[in-house]
Every structure is written in structure tokens, then in C-alpha cells.
Amino acid sequence: NAAGTSVLNVDTTNGRVGIGTTGPGSILHIVKTGTATTIGAKDARILLQNDTGTVGAGGEIVFTYSADTNTERYAAIGTYATANDATGGAGNLYFATKQLPADTALTERLTITNAGNVGIGTTPASNEKLVVDFADNIWGLRFKRGATDLGGLHANSGILSVETGSAGKLYINGNVGIGTTAPGAKLDISN
Fold first, then answer.
1. Distance CA 1, CA 183 (A)
2. What confidence score (pLDDT) does residue 168 get?
3. CA 24 to CA 27: how far, in whole Å?
4. Pseudo-torsion of CA 182, 187, 156, 166, nearest 10°?
5. CB of 111 within 8 A of CB of 118?
6. CA 39 to CA 32: how far, in whole Å?
7. How far is 168 from 156, CA to CA, in rounded Å?
8. Gyration radius (Cα) of the chain, Å
């Protein structure tokens, strides 16, 4: 830089790179002193820029086992543009993983839209703040304290149940059942 001090330092002994530091403490160590508090414009930041302006294009941080191939990649955090024009751009943030080592593609698991809506297993529509897409007989939302099961939301064969511990208490299948797994009326209460 103009002051004659090194901005980029390579520690060949430990295989580390430092930007703004002469003693990198990890593979990549970035130090920037600053007081900016605006989200997206803080002094210590990493900027990924895609110059194409194409809707659907964006940037990613990709995690891989040993090589940058479809079978070796196992997770990614990324973003893609949903709109752009002369005033700026908008986009979604996503988290993607592979379920099995043999899978050849990453799957979006969690999406945060540019409107702040959240989708788990799906991208939410503009009028959905939180959407969880899950298969039958899967917990959609579960509460635990350590190993103690406190309950949650469970879905199976078109029936949504609210459960406490491991036992169902409230079942909804178009009708509402309290204490019954197959409510036969708009409100069906069983002891």
C-alpha cells in the first residue's frame, strides 16, 4: 500500500494467508479496522460480485470434501438474484446440502427470500412468512430440553397433530380432535 506496509501476508510455514494481519491464525485470516455499522457495508466484509446481472445468477460459499466436483461438494451457502434494474438488485439467500455421499447435486434446504420469508424444504410464496415442507410421518417442528421431548407439530397421512412429549393431544384432518386420532366431527373430544 502507499504507506509501504504489507496488506497481504503469506505464512508458508503453516499454510496460512493473512489480509490486514502479519500473523494469520487460520487458513484465511482477514482483519480490517473500521466503525461502519450499516448492514452490507461494514468495513470487515467479503464481497462476492456477479457482474452478469442475470436473474438466477449469484455467488456461493461451497464446502467440498477433497475436490471441486459434483460428488465431492456437500454443502453451500449462496444467493441468487430475483430481480435487477437500474435502481439495484434483490435476491434470495439459501443453504444447500447433499443427503447422501453418492448424491450428485446439492439441494436447497432453507431459503430466506428478499421479502424476509423463510422456507424449509421449499421456497415460500410472497404471502407465507414461514413454510416447512416435510414428508408424511415427519416432525415439522419439535421442542426438546436436552434429551427430554417436550412435543411439537407432526404430520402423517394428511393429519396434523400437536403433541406433548411423545403423545398426540390435538389432531386436525379437516375436523379437530382432542384426545382422538380420527376426529369425525368439526370438534371431536374424547377422554
1. 74
2. 67
3. 7
4. -90
5. yes
6. 16
7. 12
8. 24
Quick one: cell of 92? 434470495
Amino acid identity, position 81: A
Task: Give 128: exposed, middle or buried? Use CB within 10 Å, 0-12, 13-18, 19+.
Answer: middle
User: Amino acid identity, residue 163?
Assistant: E
Spell out the per-residue pLDDT of the chain, length 191, in tens: 566 567 899 999 999 999 988 889 999 998 888 888 888 888 888 888 877 778 888 899 999 988 888 888 999 999 998 988 888 889 999 999 999 988 989 999 999 999 999 998 888 888 888 888 876 667 777 888 888 888 888 777 777 788 886 666 788 888 888 888 788 899 988 87
pLDDT of residue 118: 93
Q: Which residue has the cell 468495513?
A: 43
Of 91, 35, 34, the closest CA to residue 59 belongs to: 91
Kindly give the residue spans of alpha helices, DSSP state H, lying in 10-130. none
Cell of residue 55, nine digits: 436473474
- Please give the Cα distance from 154 to 137 (Å, whole number): 7
